[in-house]
Design brief:
By secondary structure, the chain is an alpha+beta fold. Among the domains are: 174 residues, P-loop containing nucleotide triphosphate hydrolases (Rossmann fold); 84 residues, Elongation Factor Tu (Ef-tu), domain 3 (Beta Barrel); 58 residues, Arc Repressor Mutant, subunit A (Orthogonal Bundle), CATH 1.10.10.10. Helix content is 33%, strand content 27%. The chain has 19 helices and 34 strands. Strands 7, 8, 9, 11, 12, 13, 15 and 16 form an eight-stranded antiparallel β-sheet that branches. Strand 5, helix 5 and strand 6 form a beta-alpha-beta unit. Helix 14 packs across helix 16 and helix 18 crosses helix 19. The longest helix is centred in the last third of the chain and has 21 residues. The protein is elongated.
């Protein structure tokens, strides 16, 4: 590693008054207690932030969390960004209630490495000959079966400076073990502070969970009631110094344009602008969760608890999907159904807190369990085999299986690599590879190349089945005109996106299951022949149009000529069009097929001789007034016979 700003955050944890803040000040030279109330009471109320130079490695961000149980919410909000933990235990008191709960919190939030700082160790000589040995045994028992089981215990003192170089080296060793977070994923910056700086405006801070953030970027603020959209980032800082781009894992400050402090509350998050449909404020989350072993009783389905997500705290219902209740020490698959939308992204870890399931040995504790988010904004699931299978795939290690399930559940809108990366545990690059692989294996189709949108093949087949069924239903109910308007059919079949709908129609036409033109969709085969008065009325109408030539009556004049209502006349016109005997030229005019065919031949001959036609020469060619000439010219444009260039029309390439 080079001597630069590291993509890692070191965080303290431990019981109140065990020397966390004093230790951070001794290591960094920064007093993280900034509030007057903290100075007066001598305890940390809000998380504090600093940075630590690790010789030969770089500069790491530092988070100093509150230790008092009354401020656990603030501790949890800050702990979500910790990569390397420094568990502080005072030499004179040893492990205390909050020590154990903070350790639970760190483990549940996914921290995997750290050190144990035995603070106030300058007091050890006066605590008796056996104190050090007994304290060490107690510490090892506390961290057994946790990520700190083999962590070094470093005796140190903020007052005398004893052990501080050794502690810095132990932290550096732990940092070397930590893999940096991916900056390839979508931007997600949970906010823990927002404040105004004179001359600059609103500044927000947080630990960048994924992605990157640079000056000039546009972001949305989501969650905790935040509604600012398309906000420009004026500048970015890491460790108090301007930087070109902040990357995942770094403590980040961003100066936002046009946003008030109240518009960027703690619990909200910065996400890429325009991605709210797939990332951001969600109220339903697929999760994998666990209940801590010392819970006094199982967690029942639909239990109401407090969920800590990023820097937010939200009341939630825990819906279990793969079992009826969750026993202490066990894991389950389920959903968090939040009381109000919260900022969330796949891969984010969460905590569950409450007061009803604790034993006397942990009677102080309110942390019951936690887990990780598998997908954001899914549909509500039930305890059934298909939903269990989907969650098992999302919790597994097969990215192709995860992509398959998420794409299927994306429905007709489909998913782009960006959407998939926001909903599941993917980077944009791995999401794109997974979608391309699904398309290669026939499990997905790329239906919108410009937006890079894929749909699951099962969804496309389902849409095709619906389209055929709706066309048949309409044909059975309408004797005169068995075709149906394209847009009406799309809506009847569920309102699929236009490009996916067009893909489905093209596939069905290729298989001969229906046929479609620019305006209508027809069932396969020849239209049913009309009989009785329907046939007579249709023939009478066709005769009127053919005899009128290129100057037919308006549509509102036709009913009186064939002794029918306007609605029935319109149905008969559609039937004639389906049979190829009439064409709609405008909302007011329908022409018979024979006059139109003759006009087409004359127009082609004129274009072959003169190369183009304008409105005046077309009127001279046909002897028509502007009332008929202009609609006919526009009709031939729509039919792609002619192409308008300025005031003239030319023959389209490939036409004869």
């Amino acid at each position: 590693m080079s001597d630069s700003k590291l993509r890692v955050v070191v965080g303290t944890a431990g019981h109140v008054d065990h020397g966390k803040t004093a230790l951070v000040k001794a290591l960094t030279g920064i007093d993280t207690d900034r509030l007057p109330e903290e100075k007066r009471r001598g305890i940390t109320l809000e998380a504090g932030y600093a940075h630590l130079q690790l010789p030969g490695i770089g500069v790491a961000g530092v988070v100093d969390v509150p230790g008092h149980e009354r401020f656990l919410r603030a501790m949890v909000a800050a702990a979500g960004g910790i990569d390397v933990a420094v568990l502080c235990v005072a030499a004179d008191e040893g492990p205390m209630p909050q020590t154990a709960e903070h350790l639970d919190v760190l483990r549940l939030l996914g921290v995997q490495t750290g050190v144990i700082a035995l603070t106030k160790s300058d007091l050890l000589p006066g605590l008796g000959p056996d104190h050090r040995e007994l304290l060490t045994l107690e510490l090892r028992e506390l961290v057994k079966d946790t990520f700190l089981e083999e962590a070094p215990i470093v005796e140190c003192s903020a007052r005398t400076g004893k052990g501080l170089p050794e502690l810095v080296e132990a932290i550096a060793d732990a940092v070397r073990e930590k893999q940096p977070r991916s900056e390839q994923g979508p931007l997600f910056l949970p906010l823990d502070r927002s404040f105004a700086v004179k001359g600059f405006g609103t500044v927000v801070t947080g630990t960048l969970f994924s992605g990157a953030l640079a000056a000039g970027d546009e972001v949305d603020l989501v969650g905790a009631g935040a509604k600012a959209r398309g906000v420009r980032v004026r500048g970015v800082q890491v460790h108090g110094a301007p930087i070109e781009k902040a990357r995942a894992g770094q403590r980040t400050a961003a100066n936002l344009a046009g946003v008030e402090v109240k518009d960027a509350p703690r619990g909200s998050a910065l996400v890429p602008a325009g991605t709210l449909e797939s990332i951001g404020a969600a109220q339903v989350l697929d999760v994998e969760l666990e209940l801590l072993p010392w819970s006094a009783k199982p967690l029942k389905d639909r239990a109401r608890l407090l969920a800590h997500l990023g820097t937010a705290q939200v009341p939630a219902v825990v819906a279990l999907v793969d079992k009826a209740q969750l026993a202490p020490g066990e894991r389950a698959l389920g959903q968090l159904r939040l009381a109000h939308p919260a900022a969330a992204i796949a891969g984010l870890r969460f905590l569950l807190r409450g007061t009803s399931a604790t034993q006397a040995t942990r009677s102080h504790a309110t942390t019951l369990g936690g887990g990780r988010i598998l997908s954001v904004a899914p549909r509500r699931r039930r305890r059934r085999e298909s939903d269990v299978s989907s969650l098992q795939a999302l919790a597994g290690d097969d990215p192709l299986g995860q992509a398959d399930k998420l794409l299927l559940e994306s429905g007709y809108p489909g998913a782009s690599p960006q959407r998939l990366a926001a909903r599941g545990a993917f980077t944009t690059r791995t999401a794109e590879k997974a979608l391309e692989r699904l398309a290669q294996t026939g499990r997905a189709v790329l239906f919108d190349r410009e937006a890079r949108l894929y749909a699951h093949t099962d969804l496309l087949h389902s849409l095709e089945t619906k389209l055929v069924a709706r066309v048949r239903e309409h044909a059975a109910q309408s004797v005169i005109d068995r075709s149906i308007a394209r847009e009406e059919l799309r809506q009847r079949a569920g309102g699929a996106p236009q490009k996916l709908y067009a893909r489905a129609l093209a596939g069905l036409a290729e298989k001969g299951e229906l046929r479609a033109d620019a305006e209508r969709v027809h069932p396969p085969g020849v239209a049913a022949k009309l009989t009785g008065k329907d046939a007579d009325s249709q023939e009478r109408l066709a005769s009127v149009l053919d005899q009128a030539g290129l100057q037919p009556p308006r549509i509102d004049e036709l009913p009186a000529l064939i002794d029918q209502s306007l609605a029935r006349t319109q149905a008969l016109l559609k039937a004639l069009a389906h049979a190829g005997r009439a064409s709609k030229i405008s909302e007011e005019l329908w022409f018979g097929a024979a006059p139109l065919l003759d006009l087409r031949r004359r127009l082609l001959a004129h274009l072959a001789e003169h190369g183009s036609v304008d409105a005046q020469s077309f009127k001279e060619l046909t002897g028509l007034t502007r009332k008929f000439a202009i609609p006919l010219l526009e009709y031939f444009d729509r039919e792609k016979l002619t192409l308008r260039i300025g005031d003239k029309r030319v023959l389209r390439k490939g036409e004869r």
